[in-house]
Write a structure and sequence with these properties.
Elements (H helix, E strand, L loop, with lengths): L2 E8 L1 H5 L5 H4 E5 L4 E4 L7 E5 L3 E8 L11 E10 L6 E7 L2 E7 L15 E7 L2 E6 L10 E14 L7 E6 L2 E5 L2
């Protein structure tokens, strides 16, 4: 069993303005260990995973805040939906993704011209993600494949307001599950 990591970047400002165009507002990237079938960097990323693998999706604002404000955007997956009642992706869970990360010591740190270094420190951070387990039904023969289209729904938050500025924005990527 392997874990596949997908990063999703969302143009929050464009979506919050009322525009609905996932092709220009959503970018999905699979890690290099994942087999990409189509659309790396697009909103309909299609990947292939083995039955028994896990997939983790992390969602980030493309730009941290709306121009001219100090209110940062946050994006969370609010729901998923499998087309045609497919059951290839199971056990959907949401995680805080808490853990330490390195950051620059202060904003505006000078970068040393000869080394490219800037002082860093380790701080606690949250990187929320959702995870699902890929599973083919029954006892399929080796090499058997099935594809699932699913919908992601996200909520976009701004500043410290717990109410989303955009609720349940959605688009539809794909996963191909293979019996190894």
């Amino acid at each position: 069993m392997a874990t596949h990591f997908i990063q999703i970047f969302v143009d929050c400002d464009s979506i919050a303005s009322g525009r609905k165009d996932p092709a220009s507002q959503i970018q999905m990237f699979a890690d290099s260990a994942t087999t990409v079938l189509a659309n790396q960097g697009g909103y309909e990323l299609s990947i292939q995973v083995n039955s028994g693998d896990d997939i983790q999706w992390s969602v980030f604002p493309r730009y941290p805040q709306q121009p001219g404000t100090t209110k940062s955007y946050s994006v969370l997956v609010s729901a998923t939906y499998a087309w045609n009642d497919s059951t290839l992706l199971k056990n959907w869970k949401a995680y805080q993704g808490a853990g330490p990360i390195f950051v620059y010591q202060t904003d505006g740190e000078d970068i040393a011209p000869s080394s490219g270094d800037a002082p860093i420190v380790m701080k606690g951070d949250f990187r929320p993600f959702v995870e699902a387990h890929a599973s083919l039904p029954g006892r399929p023969d080796p090499g058997s494949k099935q594809q699932e289209a699913y919908s992601f729904y996200i909520n976009i938050y701004q500043g410290d307001n717990p109410n989303p500025v955009v609720k349940d924005y959605s688009w539809d990527p794909y996963v191909m599950v293979v019996q190894p």
